Amino acid sequence: MKAPASEQRKLLDLQAADNRVAQLQHALRSLPQEARLAELQRDSAAARKEWAGVNGELEDAKAEIARVEGDIETVAAREKRDQERLQVSSSSKDIQGLEHEIASLKVRRSNLEDIELAVMERMEEIEERLAAIVARRDDIATEERLLAAARDEQKERLATQLTVAGSERSAVAGGIQSDLLALYERQRERYGVGAALLTRGVSLGSNMALTESDLAAIRSAPEDEVVFDPESNCILVRTEESGL
Length: 244
Prior knowledge:
Layout: H1 5-29, H2 32-88, H3 92-174, H4 178-191, E1 195-199, E2 202-203, E3 208-209, H5 212-220, E4 227-228, E5 235-238
Parallel strand pairs: 1-5
Antiparallel strand pairs: 1-2, 2-3, 4-5
Helix pairs in contact: 1-3, 2-3
């Protein structure tokens, strides 16, 4: 294909515009906040699961306290009843039996009160763990909220830049003759790079120095002949910098 050297040089501007668009698209796909937000989501899920487990312990302890308190009330009521019966009893046998039972009930009540105290202490420790989990969960939520806001702000800024870059790219492409533009687009789609500068014998498409035979072939090609990088297959644009 033939195209004026001035048209071929426009391809460098188009490739630069495409590079800018690709950079912005990559930046949008790999926002730095996303990785940390994913970690925080995992941490938040783990904290919720931990909270559910510890809260289950607390509910079990509350149920145990309720049972123990019920037993204490039952024992206390029975002890009171026996004390009342003891006050009015005249039978030594009954008195002896009541005194024995009251002594047993006192021991039973004391044991239950010890159990109640132990469970209450356990509840206090569980509530402290729950409070720590809630604090950690709140910290995670705060960091998530701040990071999400920063991510959304950066995403909006990049999206605006991408829109501008896309418009600029379209403007550059609109100024290139159609057949040369089609060739550029085809090479870029196939090989990732559509055009690159040949500078001092080095292709910026492959960042490799061309062999003497390749350079000789390019030197012999007319100025309006479209030539290609033998390594990257992109269009090689020749300028005064090419060192030919």
